[in-house]
Amino acid sequence: MDQAYELVIEGYRQSKQEPGLFQSAEVKKQAARAEKAMERAIGTLNLQEVSPVIQKNTNIESALLLREILDRIEKPRPEDIPDLEAVKTEGIKRWEIPNTAIAIVQISDEGWYKNEFRFSLFSEETLKRLELWYGEVKHLPYQEGALEGFYEYYISTPGSLLPPKWSKLLPGWSKKTFWDQTIWQWGSLLLLLSLASAMVGFIYRELRSPRNQANSKVQAWEGLILPTSIVAICFVSKYMVTNIINITGSTCVTIVLVLETILYCALAWLSFMFFNAVGRTIIASSYFDENHLLEATIVRNAFRIWGVVTGASLLYLGGNEIGIPTQALVASLGVGGLAISFGVQPYLKNLVGGITLFAHRSAKIGEFCEFGGVTGTIEDIGLNTTSVRTLGGSLVIIPNSVVSETQVVNYSRCERRLMNFTIGLRYETERQQLLDVMDKIRSWLEQHSMIVDERVRFIDFGDSSLDIEVFAYVMTTSYAEFLEIKETCLIEIIKIVEAVGTEFAFPSQTLYFSRDRAAGGGDRATASKPGQ
């Protein structure tokens, strides 16, 4: 670290003497040599349990902070420090600097340092408590040989070890420390986050504006703009925070973790939207016409599942990078697998029902069907539910498990529709009138080009009428056309009944009055009750 300090100071002095706002090639070489020297110092830290994301942005700070603490406390005598031979003979696994809790531990041959000879590193507990210890010793004077002000210099200047030349333009008051960061760093951070939020909000409003509404395929690809923008903004913001503004400490850790979390969530969102857009583009081709709507549904849902799997994989990788124990989380799912299986059982039943519906091809989008008492036109068939638009205009969402377990009546696939109803004539109708009515109805049905297999029969003596059954098939699959033909038939029957001279029956009763002779020889009037 002493070498890194000397190279940084030398490069900084040389940079100040050179004209212009950009560093020369020689200064950049000095900075690269300083960073390599710093990497050797960082190699003394045990970073096994540190999140890779945090490690990339805090390793230099941790090394400098540890050196800052060591420069302010009393160092042990060289003879008090166990050498390699003492470690091997005495089996020393842990050694603490006298009068401190700063520990150097021996690393096992497993983990990151397997097959590497690194017998001792500063422990994880030491790295976690560096900020606390620094707060306790920063009032102490520097010891002999200390790198005075190296840590403060690093956390208060932009860039990495060697700050850019534009940093000399910053006013003196902006370099004052406030809550572990300088004033210019807090201002730059606030400005950066405000600009990032404003850009996301602007893109969102532009995509939601009515003038950008287009067809489904174009909208699907436009759906990639917002997550792509968030990913780009997160990358730029993270670079600015860690490399330009150089936020340090717990503030840096918090900001980086938040940005990385948003980044991986946006990547998962982007992957889902990408596969969804690809599926929409494929089913927009001329092949997927009205005769291939079911195949279009399968393709759309297949790409959606692909997008979900890819997004979940990205979240898993992101969790590992951030430091979330995703492997333990996935393993714990096996313990709670039984409980989860009960929770997802309805969804799995719907999924199996959807696959069954696809395989049997009993119905497709646009067909008029009946599912367990619900009749209407199918608008969408998903892996979980089926959407049906009823004749009344309401949208009914039916679970696929219900669709697969109930009787499906597909009216759109019938070659013809049955027309069957009964008409009743008054009992006052004469026999010849009854025969004429049936002959004329039969004759009209025979002459209609859309009606076949007609049958007209006198079938019963009803309570109030002479019942005639009309039975025929209408050669159409359209329900609207069927209703139109049936309406014409009914109106024609009204004309026939009126022309023959009879009338339709309606529920009625007839009372008959008579006189019975009384027991004393007189007469009495009685009224017969219905049924007597």
TrEMBL record:
Biological processes annotated in GO: transmembrane transport
Q: Where is the Mechanosensitive ion channel MscS domain?
A: 347-413
Location, primary (coarse class): membrane
Q: Where in the cell is it found?
A: Cell membrane
The transmembrane segments are 183-204, 224-241, 253-278
Using the record's annotation, list all stretches that form the Mechanosensitive ion channel MscS C-terminal domain: 420-503
Bilayer topology reads: Multi-pass membrane protein
Q: Which Pfam family, any one, appears in the UniProt record?
A: MS_channel_2nd
What's a single GO CC term here?
Answer: plasma membrane
InterPro entries to which the protein is assigned, alphabetical = LSM_dom_sf (IPR010920), MS_channel_C (IPR049278), MscS_beta-dom_sf (IPR023408), MscS_channel_2nd (IPR006685), MscS_channel_C_sf (IPR011066), MscS_channel_TM-2 (IPR011014)
Q: Does the keyword Membrane apply?
A: yes
Q: Which domain of life is it from?
A: Bacteria
Q: What PANTHER family would the database entry show? A: MECHANOSENSITIVE ION CHANNEL PROTEIN 1, MITOCHONDRIAL-RELATED, YNAI-RELATED MECHANOSENSITIVE ION CHANNEL
Family affiliation: Belongs to the MscS (TC 1.A.23) family.
- This protein's name: Mechanosensitive ion channel family protein
Q: Which organism is it from?
A: Lyngbya aestuarii BL J
